[in-house]
Specification:
Number of helices: 14
CATH architecture of one domain: Alpha-Beta Complex
Radius of gyration: 23 Å
CATH class of one domain: Alpha Beta
Order of helices and strands: EHEHEEEHEEHEEEEEHHHHEEHHHEHHH
Largest sheet: 9 strands, mixed
Strand content: 15-25%
Distance between the termini: 71 Å
Structural class: alpha/beta
CATH topology of one domain: Spore Coat Polysaccharide Biosynthesis Protein SpsA, Chain A
Helix content: 40-55%
């Protein structure tokens, strides 16, 4: 029978997040909980000690050039060194296992205790929510892995495990970890500054990828475009990273990035090229199918647009990098409803409108469209 432990690193002033996180983790009946405190904060330390006697202090500063930064990988590796269990489960302090997922995680851990065949286990990780608390983005994330000397955390920031993505593993797709930070401000430009220095001094494919992504998040599109094109040209990173960079470029070239998805007529052809290129690297992302559906709809190729939107509906949320959940039901179904309505196929329009409503997004708008469709159907029946 395998033993399963838990690792967590925690910073200064995070006692409330720590308490919230460990309160849920303690319900999973794990064999040990190991907490590493990265600042000399007595309140945080005492909060951790409510749940475990394995609380350690670690000075986690690293350097990029002459500038000190927090070295996340070194802190996680230090935590691993104090863990005796056969498998290690981990979370960030601002992650949460909600009450609805507790039993599912208990079952997953029960499976891990009995199974020695897999190096790691993955679950859905929901990284963003709408104002109505509906999940927006998710990734497939390693949440538990074998405690072996050759498995280490790498990179000072956006750290990752030294596990090959295609290693045999189990994926519990019906349970999820939620990323629930205390506010939506994030880290400002902290990550961008660190990644910019790392890109110049310790550049590798992972650093290059996250630098591309951080530039895009900060809306520095011109600089992002230059780095992203070079990333694809040099064929850096794995297939999903290359696909994700292509997705950023395809979105940038297809739409005007102004908060409204209006088409960028001058560069839409480039958007189409990068959408096809991205699909060539990895066909898991429905975002590409929707972009190509939008482009064909814009060109007047309605039959092709319908085909692309239907392809999007067939995709699943099982990619390693972030997937916008709306592109896997709401957006393609809504687009299909509008398209079928425009050609007078009101029954199909109603079918896809119902599918869009079931996604639990934008219900009030979709219900108004439903009334409009039903009115046309009733008028046809009267005629």
């Amino acid at each position: 029978m395998n033993t399963v432990g838990f690792n967590l690193i925690v910073g200064r002033g995070e006692e409330q997040l720590l308490d919230r996180c460990l309160k849920q983790v303690s319900k999973l009946d794990l064999d040990e909980i190991v907490v590493v405190v990265t600042h000399n904060d007595i309140v945080v330390k005492r909060t951790a000690e409510k749940y475990t006697d394995k609380v350690y202090y670690y000075e986690w500063f690293g350097f990029v050039g002459d500038e000190p930064i927090n070295d996340f990988a070194s802190a996680r590796n230090f935590c691993m060194e104090h863990t005796e269990s056969d498998y290690i489960m981990w979370l960030d302090t601002d992650d949460l296992i909600s009450e609805v997922n507790i039993n599912g995680f208990k079952e997953a851990i029960g499976h891990i205790r009995k199974n020695k065949h897999f190096l790691y286990y993955a679950v859905r990780y929901i990284v963003a929510f709408s104002n109505g608390n509906v999940p927006l983005e998710s990734v497939k994330r390693v949440f538990c892995f074998k405690n072996r000397s050759e498995i280490k955390w790498l990179y000072k920031i956006h750290e990752g495990l030294s596990i090959r993505p295609n290693t045999p593993h189990a994926y519990f797709e019906n349970i999820a970890i939620e990323h629930r930070p205390p506010n939506k401000k994030g880290h400002g430009d902290r990550n961008l500054k660190i990644l910019e220095k790392l890109y110049k001094t310790e550049r590798d494919s992972r650093i290059a990828f996250y630098y591309c992504k951080e530039l895009y998040i900060e809306k520095m599109f011109k600089k992002a475009e230059e780095i992203q094109i070079q990333f694809v040209k040099d064929n850096e990173g794995g297939d999903e990273e290359l696909a994700h960079v292509c997705l950023m470029l395809a979105t940038y070239y297809t739409y005007k990035i102004d908060g409204i998805q209006t088409f960028n007529k001058e560069t839409i052809a480039k958007g189409e090229i990068y959408a096809y290129l991205g699909l060539g690297f990895c066909d898991k992302y429905a975002e590409f199918d929707v972009i190509l559906g939008d482009i064909n709809d814009y060109k007047g190729n309605k039959d092709l647009a319908i085909q692309w939107y239907k392809k999007a509906l067939d995709k699943k949320l099982n990619a390693v990098l972030a997937q916008d959940i709306r592109y896997y039901r709401l957006i393609p179904a809504d687009r299909l409803s509008v398209l079928f309505f425009s050609v007078g196929d009101f029954e199909s329009a109603l079918l896809y409108n119902k599918m869009a409503i079931q996604s639990n997004y934008e219900k009030s708008r979709l219900l108004k469209i439903r009334k409009k469709i039903l009115k046309r159907i009733n008028n046809e029946r009267v005629d």
